[in-house]
Amino acid sequence: MAQSSPANASGDLPGRLAGFPPFSQRHLISIADLAQHEIVELLDRAERMIPVSRQERKSLSTLSGKTQINLFFEPSTRTQSSFEIAGKRLGALVVNMSVRTSSVTKGETLIDTAATLNAMRPDVLVVRHSAAGAVELLSQKVGCSVINAGDGAHEHPTQALLDALTIRQHKGRIAGLTVAICGDIANSRVARSNLLLLGALNVRTRVIAPKTLLPAGIEQLATEVFTDMEEGLKGVDVVMMLRLQHERANGKMIPSVREYYRFYGLDAAKLKNAKPDVIVMHPGPMNRGVEIDPAIADGPRSVITDQVEMGVAVRMAVLDALLPDSNGAPR
Ligand code: NCD
């Protein structure tokens, strides 16, 4: 992957990224809320954060004195730890709250939880919830910034940003590429956020899935829709595989996992249809042998671990952009 230059010419990493105008948004709920220039700015900011995690002392003081609460109503390993590491590398005090340890299991509502946490005066809440729209609702009830870490099948904006950063690092550009998103599109907030972001950056987007896993109205979001994987992969620059989301699928959407793998699992034979320099992505967690052959997931075209690395950079950039300066300067 391309190496990024340090944050400034002297190699010193300033407390705050220089050269960026104040970010106009208070929350990050949806890619749909962002203008094209704001998406590009977040990617530029994230690129400048990459070297921080590659150096010996992986810390900045940007968010020193700030409190970040990660509020996860759905289980998560990589997204939650990525936000935790991002906040800590920027110097914030990070508190993790998961539903299993919270009062929600005692019947407290989402809004009560929001009011309680708000009274502790956090500066940012990072929220994941199984219901689409829950994070936006919560953002209207608190006095701090809110970042959507995934709400139902609606959106997962930082995942789309980290995917875009990974593509840009590998391909040197985003506009003009052809990107195929394959699998459980209907249940995927990752697919939705990616289609919105890639569409805004003039990417030719394809979705590939059995009819039962394609949501209504998908042709308004994607440039092309395929039910045949070999056809859909022809000449693509990027393949994004999605996890088959058993927890969100109502009833059986596929005849059997074996048949799904045969027609929609990414293996070497199907991947031959893509460009020779194709990159293979997956947001994780992966169902090996269901949507992807382990040999592809671990093979030379896979950039899956780079996505994880870019995730920390993107989340640092988003936190840095959303939170006002420690000295109280307006956003
Ligand atoms: C995704 C999610 O939770 O939406 N994973 C992630 O954020 N790492 C995708 C998924 O669950 O399949």
Explained architecture:
With about 325 residues, this protein is α/β, with parallel strands linked by helices. About 35% of the residues lie in helices and about 15% in strands. It has helices at about 35-55, 80-90, 110-120, 135-140, 155-170, 190-200, 230, 255-265, 270, 295, 305-320; strands at about 65-70, 95-100, 125-130, 145-150, 180, 205-210, 225, 240, 280. The protein has a five-stranded parallel β-sheet. A four-stranded parallel β-sheet has the order 2-1-3-4. β5 (about 180), α6 and β6 (about 205-210) form a beta-alpha-beta unit. α1 (about 35-55) crosses α11 (about 305-320), α2 crosses α11 and α5 (about 155-170) packs across α11 (about 305-320). The longest helix has 19 residues, at about 35-55. The two termini are about 35 Å apart. The model is unreliable at about 5-15 (pLDDT under 50). N-carbamoyl-L-aspartate binds near residues 78, 245 and 284.
Characterize this entry briefly.
With 331 residues, this protein is α/β, with parallel strands linked by helices. It has helices at residues 36-54, 78-89, 110-119, 134-139, 157-171, 189-200, 229-232, 257-264, 268-271, 294-297, 304-322, and strands at 67-72, 93-98, 124-129, 145-151, 178-182, 204-208, 224-226, 238-241, 279-281. It is globular.
